[in-house]
Each structure stands twice: as C-alpha cells, then as structure tokens.
Amino acid sequence: xxxxxxxxxxxxxxxxxxxxxxxxxxxxxxxxxxxxxxxxxxxxxxxxxxxxxxxxxxxxxxxxxxxxxxxxxxxxxxxxxxxxxxxxxxxxxxxxxxxxxxxxxxxxxxxxxxxxxxxxxxxxxxxxxxxxxxxxxxxxxxxxxxxxxxxxxxxxxxxxxxxxxxxxxxxxxxxxxxxxxxxxxxxxxxxxxxxxxxxxxxxxxxxxxxxxxxxxxxxxxxxxxxxx
Length: 228
Prior knowledge:
Helix content: 40-55%
Number of strands: 5
Oligomer: single chain
Strand order of the largest sheet: 3-4-5
C-alpha cells in the first residue's frame, strides 16, 4: 500500500512539474512562433506597398483595390527610368538653359540633322533618355512570385483585405488612401487561442487594429505599417 501511495505521489509530482513547465514555456513558444509569422506577413505587406506605390505613379495617383490588377501590373507593366549623361554647368544655367530646353535643342537636332545649336550650347555630351524597365526587374528580387502577394502567409489560402478610398485635402486637392490588413486569427491560426485572445484584448484596449496592416482609410499616414 505504501508503495502504491509513493507511486501516486511521484506521478502527481511529475504532473505538477509538467504543468509548471508548460505554463512557462507555453507563452515563450507562442511568442517565438508569433514573431516568425509576423515577419513573414510584414514582408508580404511591404511587397504590396512597393507595388502599390509604383502602380500609383502610372495611374493618375490612384491605388487599386484589386489584387488581379496589382498582380497583372507587377507581372507585365514597365516603369520609366531616366538615363542621365552630363550635367549643365553654372554658365549654361546663368545663360538661361534648363534641362527641358537642352533636351528640346537635342531632339530638334536629331530631327533636322543640324547640330549647330547643340555645339553652340555645349551639349555634345548631354544626354537624357527614357528607358522602360519591367516592374519585376526594378523593385523586386529575381524569382519574385507576384501571384503570392494576395495570400496571407500561414493563412491557409486566406487573402489580405485590401481597400482604397478617394478623399479631398483641406486645400481641395484630391488624394487616394490605401489600406491592406489581416487579423491575428488568420495568420496565427493553430497557435494557442488564449494567447491570441490576450493580444487582441491588449490591442482593443489601446484602440489599435487586432492584426497587421499598412495604410488607413481613416487618416493619411503615408501607408505606414502598424508595426513601424
């Protein structure tokens, strides 16, 4: 009987040790997993932001709320790149020459074959050409998969929520707002639910979004991430 009692006490001690271990390591393991997933989601949001900024430059300062349009833009669109050779010196600038005038003089010479004005203004080594470079070759690393932008890492196929809003500044100038986000439940799925609830409770009390996001439809914030 005494042996059985000792065995039971031993088992109880092991259970208590395990409970203590789990109570300590549980939050630690959750935080480690969360940081890993946060990093992947943040990287994807930054990619979306980069694509949207380039999209806006070629679409009348408008973002897109469609991932189909954004992905097609990244895969097939080209961006202008200005190749510069030579600079205007102080005397040329004092004489009233500007880059625009210099380019016009050179373009006229190319059309007419008369390079007298080019020599007169000393523009023989001045050159400005517009090169068109694929978006994929310009802002993303080699092998970037544009189709993946819409999907939330660790989200089991879930897509980011993306929206735009057109507004007007106090000066009367129109501008476009962008917001891309995903809640904790989507990319932290499979982790400890109580830990997720704790994080959401803290964020809610602080009046912050319960997840990761860039931009805002409420206020212009230069598309900042809520982790920045």
